[in-house]
Fold this sequence. Notes:
By secondary structure, this protein is α/β, with parallel strands linked by helices. About 25% of the residues lie in helices and about 15% in strands.
Amino acid sequence: MDGPIAHALRPFAGGRQDAPIAFLDRDGVLNMSLDGYVNHPEELELIPGTVRSLRTLKEQGFLLCVVTNQSAVGRGLWDDERLHEIHDRFDAMLAPHGAQPDLILACPHVPWAGCACRKPMSGMLSLGASLLRSDEGFGVLRQRMNNAEADVHPGDLMVGDRGTDVKAGLNFGARTFRTVRDVGLEPWLGRLSDREDPGNEVR
């Protein structure tokens, strides 16, 4: 597997050069984390406030791109089909409320693989920005997997609950925010929507 696994169920919001992107970690930020992995769709539990938070970000003009490390695939614990099933369930929980992400990207590689997409590397953010801002959308997905370059919008942000998430955001050049595991986005909405807020430094 050369690059991240992409998941989207709707026509692409391509060509949105003017729109900022909210890059969001998944486990511990949008859904409750587990000790290990979310191994089955039925194990997904949204953090309270996730629906309201995602809908608010969309109403503020953000495109939503989930970027998540999922090395269970690379470790052979389950395959990319299972990952799509989990993300189908994730999307189904959010779609009725108008809070579904525009794109989900997952790095399937183990930490020692040396890939460019696993956070703290910024490959998933670069690919997400390239795809969401391209007029061609998914038609160029394969060509862009290993050659994703995208300009950073001044409103782009990255939110995660780990230092690797924050480092990925900083490496990409986005405003970065480190949340508390399983607390969710809602307490941070004021800061996220404030374009003058520079975000957090890595500690």
